[in-house]
Write a structure and sequence with these properties.
InterPro entries: Histidine_triad_HIT, HIT-like, HIT-like_sf. This protein is an alpha+beta fold. It is built from 4 helices and 5 strands.
């Protein structure tokens, strides 16, 4: 298989490339990135800021995309009034979805961002959270 074929297959199977058109699930977006609630949260507020263009690693992205992702993280932290939080970006190590994204996780009073036992939200719970976050981000 040629390198181009591998890239094409990667794009076709990329979960985040598919989700960028799911307007019901997207909390907020700009030209370069979009925000989703993480289905497997590590904290009560665990959001994903995802580049619209497919990059696997941070250093592969262009400066404008990276800048807009950071601006989005700042916007979310301010709008959601997060006092303690952690921003995480994995580059292959522990990167489940091979598409550049950032985790924004609210920390507890001790600074621990992994404050809940990880589990998958049910469809109903997920829809409720999406609705709540969309209202907070208006």
């Amino acid at each position: 298989m040629s390198d181009i074929s591998k890239i094409d297959e990667s794009l076709k199977s990329c979960l985040f490339c598919k989700l960028k058109s799911n307007k019901e699930a997207i909390l907020h977006e700009n030209e370069h990135c979009f925000v989703l609630v993480d289905r497997f949260p590590a904290s009560e507020c665990h959001l994903l800021v995802i580049s619209k263009e497919h990059y696997v690693k941070l250093h592969e992205s262009n400066e404008e995309t990276l800048s807009e992702c950071v601006k989005m993280l700042r916007f979310l932290a301010i709008k959601l009034n997060l006092k303690k939080y952690q921003v995480v970006n994995n580059n292959e190590h522990e990167q489940i979805v091979k598409h550049m994204h950032f985790h924004l996780c609210q920390a507890d009073s001790t600074g621990n961002y992994s404050s809940t036992e990880r589990r998958e939200y049910s469809d109903e719970e997920y829809k409720q959270l999406v609705s709540e976050f969309k209202n907070k981000l208006k």
